[in-house]
Specification:
Elements: E1 18-22, H1 27-38, E2 45-49, H2 53-58, H3 64-69, E3 72-75, E4 80-82, H4 84-92, H5 98-104, H6 110-128
Parallel strand pairs: 1-2
Antiparallel strand pairs: 1-3, 3-4
């Protein structure tokens, strides 16, 4: 996938699980977390709040401020995926979405996937900044 994840699960070593660092203060991230967690997984997804003491202890070499800006996924073989690579890695881990991840990572679809992910990230970032507008009411802050 986009040079990040070998779809066969081999390469730098077989991927046994993926740790997803997500922003637990973001309604979009919490929803994505629940959705990913509820799907059948080919590769187990573990969720850790980005910037948390647990994340800092488990991954001391990461820029933890950056993990709050962009979704970050760490494979148990040490590979780190950020932003669109992280989203594609999450889809790749799911039983019903591995094929979608493979298609989205092709040269013809990757630009559109990146635009979509960038748009979602921009909404997320504006929500983090407190600019909710009509997107959220007080219940999702």
């Amino acid at each position: 996938m986009n040079g990040d994840v070998d779809p066969t699960g081999f390469g730098a070593g077989r991927v046994g699980c993926l740790t997803v660092l997500y922003d637990e203060g973001c309604p979009i991230c919490r929803t994505a977390h629940r959705w990913l967690e509820s799907r059948a997984q080919l590769v187990p997804l573990r969720f850790v709040p980005a910037g948390s003491a647990t994340a800092r202890q488990r991954f001391p070499g990461l820029d933890h401020s950056a993990t709050l800006r962009d979704l970050t996924v760490i494979a148990d073989n040490g590979l780190v995926y950020v932003s669109d690579g992280a989203w594609l890695a999450c889809l790749w881990a799911l039983v019903d979405y591995r094929g979608v991840a493979d298609r989205l990572s092709t040269p013809s679809l990757l630009p559109a996937a990146r635009r979509f992910i960038a748009a979602a990230s921009a909404v997320r970032e504006s929500m983090r900044a407190g600019d909710y507008g009509d997107v959220c009411d007080d219940s999702c802050r």
